[in-house]
Amino acid sequence: MEAKPINSILHRKQKIIYTTIDVIDEYGIHDISTKEIAKRQKIAESTIFKHFPKKSNLLLEVLDHYSQYDQDIILSSRERIDNPKEAMLFFVKAYAEYYQNYPAITSITLSYDVLAHDNDLREKIEEIYYRRKDFIRELVMAAKAVEQLYAGLDENILTEIIFGSFTAVCLEWRFSKYSFSLKDRIMLTTETIFDAFGKYGK
């Protein structure tokens, strides 16, 4: 029997990952079904388990796909660190544009807590969460140092405000059936936070 080319295998795996994200987006993380994924892919359910021995293996690959641009976005943002506000706006804009062009992927952003309750996924989702949050904190501290944000405020609180507002805007965007520009709202929200907390205490 002739072996399948590597590209064919990777292509099938990638299709399964994309379809899994679509199913999560439509039904929620609780109701993810390999039967539904196989149905949409027009393959046997057993084919999925040839590529992903357990459902958790599939979800780990989904999380890898979800966070695939993290390192590049962080590195590109860090290049702008001399102007922390600009770096922060670049950072949130990059994610907002990615999500706006791929709305289904935001279903992962809003499933962190559920994913963290799976022992096989907890380490991965925490790694993604803290990588992003810690970089926002780094930018907040840099902004405080150059007085773009008021130095007297707790950087952890400011980080949570910025990080939390991004998630809240994503949720509002989904609830509204994507009726507004996610990128524009995220950018405006982040600029408003900088303007408000830059003037705080002056």
Describe the structure.
There is one protein chain. The longest helix is centred in the middle third of the chain and has 24 residues, at 122-145. Helix 1 crosses helix 4, helix 5 packs antiparallel against helix 6 (84-101) and helix 6 (84-101) packs antiparallel against helix 9. Residues 1-6 have low confidence and may be disordered. The chain is 73% helix and 0% strand. By secondary structure, it is an all-alpha fold. The radius of gyration is 19 Å and the shape is elongated.
Q: Compute the CA-based radius of gyration.
A: 19 Å
CA-based shape: elongated
Assembly type of the chains comes to single chain
End-to-end Cα distance, whole Å, is: 75 Å
Task: Summarize the model shown.
This protein is mostly helical. The chain has helices at 6-27, 34-41, 45-51, 55-66, 70-78, 84-101, 106-109, 112-116, 122-145, 155-175, 182-199.
List keywords for this structure.
single chain; 202 residues; mainly alpha; 11 helices; 0% strand; elongated; disordered N terminus
List the helices and strands and how they pair.
Layout: H1 6-27, H2 34-41, H3 45-51, H4 55-66, H5 70-78, H6 84-101, H7 106-109, H8 112-116, H9 122-145, H10 155-175, H11 182-199
Helix pairs in contact: 1-2, 1-4, 5-6, 6-9, 6-11, 9-10, 10-11
